User: Fold MOSC domain-containing protein YiiM from Erythrobacter sanguineus.
Amino acid sequence: MTRWTIEAVCTGTARPFNGTETSAITKRPREGAVQVLADGLAPDEQADRRVHGGAQMALHLYPLDHHAFWRDAIGDSPLLDEPGSFGSNLAVNGLTEDMVHIGDRFRLGPKTSGALIEVSQPRQPCWKIEHRFGHKGMVASIIRTGRCGWYFRVIEPGEVAAGDRLERIAIGAAEWSVARVFRALMAGTASAGELADLAELSTLSPKLRAKAAANRN
Assistant:
């Protein structure tokens, strides 16, 4: 399968989250066309640009397929009815971490005005997921199961709306699925050879290439 449907396009604003902390993890579906720019959707916000957003993490996709897993794990939270409940910008069924690779390119949106996007890295889970859902242990579960989601960089800007296509037009590093990169760098299972390969993988985000290089030494 090379084409999927965008079930929802979600954006958010930075809001008070935990004491003095703010977060834009709450993403709500948008109606109509949304611009896809070099730094992501317009408008969309990230509270901490050190770890979210920017050119290498412009768009986040957390598979809708995982929501059933979480219902079994934490109960039928109403948040799991929301397509952007994990901070996802793009809601898609039938596409998971083992099916996409670093450097895969996708056409996002309508044929005439869609964007060209490229898989850049897995998402590293943080405490904000547990705080939002009110359940401890979710981060550990993500690390154990690899249900992490991933980021895209934007190669060519465009626009997208719910109901548009997400079509893979090129395979990147076929040996490096998002799932494998996550296991190697986030779950800490990488061999010395894998770290060396990841440090040289040009389509992997510079931050994770540097992490691979540092852990190799």
Summary: The two ends are 39 Å apart (CA to CA). The domain at 3-173 is CATH 2.40.33.20 (M1 Pyruvate Kinase; Domain 3).
